[in-house]
Amino acid sequence: MEGHNNIVLIGMPGVGKSTVGVILAKVLGYQFVDADLVIQEQEGKLLCEIIEEVGTDGFIEVENRVNAGIEAEHTIIATGGSVVYGKEAMEHLRDIGTVVYLEVPYEILEKRLADIKGRGVVLRDGQTLHDLYLERTPLYEKYAHVRVSEENLNVEQTVEKLIEKLQFLNNNKQKYE
Ligand SMILES: Nc1ncnc2c1ncn2[C@@H]1O[C@H](COP(=O)(O)OP(=O)(O)O)[C@@H](O)[C@H]1O
Ligand SMILES: O=C(O)C1=C[C@@H](OP(=O)(O)O)[C@@H](O)[C@H](O)C1
Ligand SMILES: [Mg+2]
Fold first, then answer.
1. Cβ of 118: how many Cβ atoms within 10 Å?
2. Where, by residue number, does Mg(2+) bind (predicted)?
3. Which residue of 13, 30, 46, 171 pairs with 81 in a disulfide if CB–CB is 3.0 to 4.6 A?
4. Which residues fall in the annotated binding site for substrate?
5. Ligand 3 being an ion, which residues bring their Cβ within 5 A of it?
6. Reported ipTM exceeds the 0.95 cut
7. What's the pLDDT band for 106 if we cut at 50, 70, 90?
């Protein structure tokens, strides 16, 4: 990650990667990139159109390819929740930045995602949100350099907690590299 200085947010859909990411970028004076928008721009289609055309597995391939090619410096990168299925994407993102897993208890997530289908989450037939949560949690944990829980925190408090955690990491860099 040396020299690139990016911060990469991963976690379940609705956890706040996009919302928190853009505020974090403003507070830290970083650039902001939402990987979902990069996919839409590069493919010339909406995420839901890609999923409709090539299915969930096809979307995961596209997402993997696009994220594996992201070039950024001094940037907060908000990924899409399914990026952790892409090995090349995650290895690249870990190379160019500090990967932060934003965690939220399942019960809170369920409330936030009441309209889950409308958000275009990569859910296979018959799979529930809870199945998805259980399937992905170990992947988020595996690829994260650091975890930040937003239990009982609002957006602003989450941003503050992230900054504190990142400053702590920065101050103790040698210990983590
Ligand atoms: N503590 C919190 N941190 C982040 N988002 C929160 C929090 N509490 C509530 N929210 C809400 O949850 C939603 C997160 O959506 P979004 O940023 O699109 O998530 P993601 O990009 O991870 O899918 C927003 O509507 C945001 O206002
Ligand atoms: O987790 C998922 O399956 C997805 C999350 C979305 O991004 P957010 O995590 O920003 O909602 C988007 O990439 C796509 O619709 C699939
Ligand atoms: Mg998002």
1. 9
2. 18
3. 13
4. 36, 81, 136
5. 17-18
6. yes
7. very high
Give burial (CB, 10 Å; 0-12/13-18/19+) of 177: exposed
Report the number of distinct structural domains present in the chain: 1
Evaluate if residue 114 carries a pLDDT over 90.
Answer: no
The CATH number linked to 98 is 3.40.50.300
CA distance to 23, 30, 118, 164, per residue, from 159 (Å): 7, 14, 26, 9
Q: Which atom of ligand 1 is nearest to the CA of 12?
A: 22
Whether 97 is in a domain gets the answer yes
pLDDT tens digits, one per residue of 124-145? 888 999 999 999 999 999 999 9
Q: Is residue 175 part of a domain?
A: no
Query: Ramachandran region of residue 100, left (φ > 0), alpha (ψ -120 to 50) or beta?
Result: beta
CA separation for the pair 121, 150 (Å, rounded) = 21
